[in-house]
Amino acid sequence: MESAPVIIKSSRLTVEIAQPGTVYAGTRFDWSAFITQVTLDGQHTFCMPESLQPGQGTGGIGLCSEFGNELAVGYADAQPGEPFPKLGVGLLKRPDAGGYNFFRPHEIVEKFPIQVEAGADQARYTVQPLECRGYAARLEKTVRAAANILTIDYRLENTGSKPLITHEYVHNFLGIDQQPIGPAYRLHFPQAVSREAPPDDLHKLAPPSLRWLPRPVLQWVLKTYLGRMGQSVTIKEEEITWNETPKGAFFARLTGFQPRQEAQWELLHQPSGLRVCEIDDFSPTRLVVWGTAHVVSAEVYTDINLDPGGIKRWSRQYVFYG
After folding, report:
1. Which of 36, 84, 178, 308 has a CA positioned 20 to 30 A from the CA of residue 164?
2. What is the pTM of this model?
């Protein structure tokens, strides 16, 4: 397998895209169009790894997509030991009767074939379908660089005999010029937002070391932990700010977002004036913010509900400013 990254360029951007299954070979994130770095004007970087400690976290880097972190295709009706399709990865084995947990590595029964076509300023990734108990899908992603804009175009076709019901988002692991998250940053939204109450399924976010706890106890521990970690974060009207560098992870599901033609979010590093925003051509169904001391991610979700033969197209634009 080719290991050198695909590099596409515009007059202002250099975009590094890992070859499928090289930098990342886990079972959470889509292997196709796995963008590990975006450099503006030859000097300013925007992408960071999920964790700075090797072996920790789930292996995310930069702009990486995930399908169905809470609604995995075909998992609910698979028996333990049977395969289910993780879009962009392959056919995974359901380990037991428990619910799907994206933190948990799964055995890969068969990888999806992924074709790569790369040019000077764009690259196309085609993930070919594998039939799995009536589920099958062909995914195409085209990454394009033009001036200071990076665009990801998606085309998902249901080639199976069963409906595809899931969702997709991009985990934008961002840290501008590797500067730590803190008072220098502003995460701006085009409308006032507020934090949702922690979900009832918060236990799904627990690290493996805590999952032995009874579920009510685990829920309480996580709510307390997230509350303490969130003390460095202020959500007020249209902005999220930090009064200090976070000492741990922070997480918030936001309310108040709505369909817009302008950016759904913009991350600004005030001392340098560097910023990046995301503009989507779909109606978002959820907006989540996650981060740690070195990285912040604003995640915009789109729902997918495709009957057999159905096709869904959507697009995300990232605009980088110096």
Report:
1. 36
2. 0.91
